[in-house]
Amino acid sequence: MSAYEALPGVCHTGTDMPAQLTFAAPRRAKPPRHLADLSWDERREAVGALGEKPFRADQLSRHYFGRLADDPADMTDLPAAVRDRLITELMPDLLTPVRDLTCDGGATRKTLWKAFDGTFVESVLMRYPDRVTMCVSSQAGCGMNCPFCATGQAGLTRNLSTAEIVEQVVAGARALDRGEIAGGKGRVSNIVFMGMGEPLANFATIVRAIHRFSDPSPRGLGISQRNITVSTVGLVPKIHQLADLDLKVRLAVSLHAPDDELRDELVPINTRWKVAEVLDAAWEYADRTRRRISIEYALIRDINDQAWRADLLGRLIKTHPVHVNLIPLNPTPGSKWTASRPSDQTEFVRRLEAHGVPVTVRDTRGQEIDGACGQLAAKTVE
Question: Which positions does UniProt annotate for S-adenosyl-L-methionine binding (predicted)?
Answer without folding.
Answer: 197-198, 231, 254-256, 330
